[in-house]
C-alpha cells in the first residue's frame, strides 16, 4: 500500500494536539484527481476547528487544511481538463479525501483550477481561499459607481484581493482599519491611500471615521476581522445599506445596529456551494481569478513560509494566526518532495 506523511489532530485543544504520522495514500475515485501537494496555506478556520468551535462541524478528517497548490499525479476515469503533471490550485474545503496538511489529496476535478504561470507553489497556495472569498463578496455586493466601502481588517489575503477588485471596478473611496505598520504597508500595496487607512486602536474610532467622511455614512461595510470592530463597521453604515459578513463573528451590538438601520446582510460563505453540490463554482471561479492574476488586475497575497511539512510548522502557523501576528501575510507550508 502506498503511504504518505500527514499532520493529524489527535483531539480538540491546544497546538500540542498535532502530530506527524504515516497514512495510506488516497486513491482517486472516477471523478477525482490525485494531487501531490507542493504547498498548503493556513486559514483562521483551521485553528477554530482545532479548538472545537462551531467550524469543527465541517471537519471530515483528522488532517486539517483547506487549500493547496500541487501537481496532478493521477486522473479518474470521469475527469476532464487535467493531465498528470499539471500544476493546479484548489480550495478543498471539506470535500477532499483528507485535509491539506499532507503530501497527497484526492479531490473532485470540478473544484480544481490550473495554477497561474510565473509564480511559485508557495505563492499559489495562498490564492484559492482568499480569491474565492473576495470574489464572492465582490460579485454579490455589486458596488455601484460613487458608493463607498468600509472594511475591517483589510490587510490580509481576502481584504487585499477585494480591494484590488473594487479599485479595478472603479470604487473611489475605500477605508480599512489597520493595527500596525505592516498592515498599513499591505493596505497601501493593495491600492489604498494613507488617508483611507485608520488605526483601530484609536479612542472614539467611530467618530474619527465619520469625521474623515465629512459625516457621510458608508454604503457598504465588509467585516473580515469580527469581534467588537464589527460594531464599528455597522455604526458607520447608512440606513438601508449593505453589510457583508465574512467571519460570522459579529456581536449582539453589531446586529442591533444593523437591524435598527434596516441594513441588509450578505453572508459570505464558501461552504454554501459545496453544501448545494455546486462544485463547479470553485473550479470556474478559481480559473477566473487565475485570468485576473495573469492580466495583472489582482496580485497574489503576500506569504510567510512557516517551514516544510511538520507538526512544528503547523503549530507555528496556528499560534501566529491566533496571536494576530501574520502582519497581512498568508501563512504557507511547503512539502519536502
The helix/strand series, from N terminus to C terminus, equals: EEEHEEEEHHEHEHEHEHEHEHHEHE
Head-to-tail CA distance between termini: 19 Å
Number of discrete domains: 2
Proportion of β residues? 25-35%
Could you tell me the mean pLDDT?
A: 94
- Just give the CATH class of the largest domain: Alpha Beta
Summed up, the helix count is 11
| Major sheet description | 7 strands, mixed
- CATH architectural name of the largest domain: Alpha-Beta Complex
Q: Report the strand count.
A: 15
SS-based class: alpha/beta
CATH topology of the largest domain: Quinone Oxidoreductase, Chain A, domain 1
Residues in helices, as a percent range: 25-40%
The CATH superfamily of the largest domain is known as Medium-chain alcohol dehydrogenases, catalytic domain
Uncertain regions spanning at least 5 consecutive residues:
none
Write down the overall geometry: globular
Domain Enoyl reductase (ER): 13-333
Keywords: NADP, Oxidoreductase
InterPro entries: ADH-like_N (IPR013154), ER (IPR020843), GroES-like_sf (IPR011032), NAD(P)-bd_dom_sf (IPR036291)
GO molecular function, one term: NADPH binding
